[in-house]
Amino acid sequence: MNLALRDIRHHRGRFLLTCLGLALLLGVVMSMVGIFRGLESDALTLARAAGTDLWVVEPGRRGPFAETSRIPRDARDTVARLAGVAEAGVITYQVVEAPVDARKVRMFVIGYEPGHPGGPLAVIAGRPIGRSHFEMVIDRRAGIPLGAEIKLGKDVFTVVGHTAGQVDSVGNPVAYLTLKDAQTLQFTLDGAAARNQAARGETANSNQVNAVIARVKPGVSPREVAAGVSRWKHLTALTQAEQEELLLSSLVDKARKQIGLFTILLLIVSAVVIALIVYTMTLDKTREIATLKLIGAPDRAIVGLILQQALAMGVIGFSTGAALVYSVHEHFPRRIVLLVGDDLILAGIVLAVCVLASLAGVRYALRIDPAQALGG
């Protein structure tokens, strides 16, 4: 009979409790990796939601996500007339907080021109915006039902459609308005602030947008069109690939380093825990191992006993932790993205950690004197 399995059965309760603790620890490690993947996915979701090839922003800026950018609305016509551009649209971004029933919902509002790039690529329930004013499409994560009325600024909007998976880089649900409504919400003051503005003889400049987005014709290089925009129109133009790289380096880089550091620390803690448990279990089996040596058991059988127990602990702990995370990850406040590739890499690391952590126990077992089997 397998010696490792026999010993596990003999100390079943302690072994299972140890595996449970290790499973919780590895579950946290897996969650950290999933949180990072979720951050990366959320950061890119917003840039990919427009389905565009080119981003044109204020000169010298890296906007609209990394820096603030404001350009005239008619810049769209300028970009649309460039050779190689199939269609162009304008877009505005802002974060607002709205009262919904008895709670506050923080949302990322995108203003776009219906019929031009920038709107939701897919509406999973309800319909897209069909009127020029006071209609809204919002991600279902906001928990706002179709037909609900939401007050933004001084206007009331009706939710006519739902999207799925549309969130900004911090997890706020994305809401779509028409460009005119979004500009009114962003630039027009209300109440006393509006009266103060009128008293100073000032008016709101609602002819600005945050970016012009464009799709190029098939076979046309977005990079060449971007270079033409920067050279002749004195605006900053980024391709979609450059925008995504900028997002990852400016918004996700610090989070990636922090989560990576925590993940490494947790793996080190896991290795220490496994090493301590294996070493303690080996200490408890001193007389049994001495007896095995006394009856002529080879060293490889003793090494196998310890190594198999460590690997069994890692496999059971990882499997239980993975099952736990996969069953609850949908209920986390932030998106957790679990990739099979990441899980396989983590499983390999856990097995390697188990082998390394068992070395202290193996070293101790090989140094046990067979005469200890005859001791009192």
Describe the structure.
- The structure is a single chain.
- The protein is an alpha+beta fold and 376 residues long.
- 51% of the residues lie in helices and 18% in strands.
- Strands 1, 3, 4, 5, 6, 7, 8, 9, 11 and 12 form a ten-stranded mixed sheet that branches.
- Strand 3 (85-100) and strand 4 form a beta hairpin.
The biggest sheet, with number of strands, parallel, antiparallel or mixed sense and barrel status, is: 10 strands, mixed
Number of strands: 12
Strand content: 15-25%
Q: Approximately how much helix is present in the residues?
A: 40-55%
Helix/sheet category: alpha+beta
Mean of residue pLDDT values: 85
Q: In DSSP terms, counting alpha (H) and pi (I) runs of 4 or more, how many helices?
A: 11
Low-pLDDT stretches: none
Question: Which structural traits does this protein have?
Answer:
376 residues, alpha+beta, 10-stranded mixed sheet, two-stranded antiparallel ribbon, 12 strands, 18% strand, elongated
Could you give the topology of this structure?
Blueprint: H1 3-10, H2 12-49, E1 54-57, E2 71-72, H3 75-80, E3 85-100, E4 103-112, E5 125-126, E6 135-139, E7 149-152, E8 155-163, E9 174-178, H4 179-187, H5 192-199, E10 208-209, E11 211-216, H6 222-232, E12 236-239, H7 240-284, H8 286-294, H9 299-328, H10 340-357, H11 359-366
Parallel strand pairs: 4-9, 6-8
Antiparallel strand pairs: 1-11, 1-12, 2-10, 3-4, 3-11, 5-8, 6-9, 7-8
Helix pairs in contact: 1-9, 2-7, 2-9, 7-9, 7-10, 7-11, 9-10, 9-11
Task: Give a short overview.
Helices cover 51% and strands 18% of the residues.
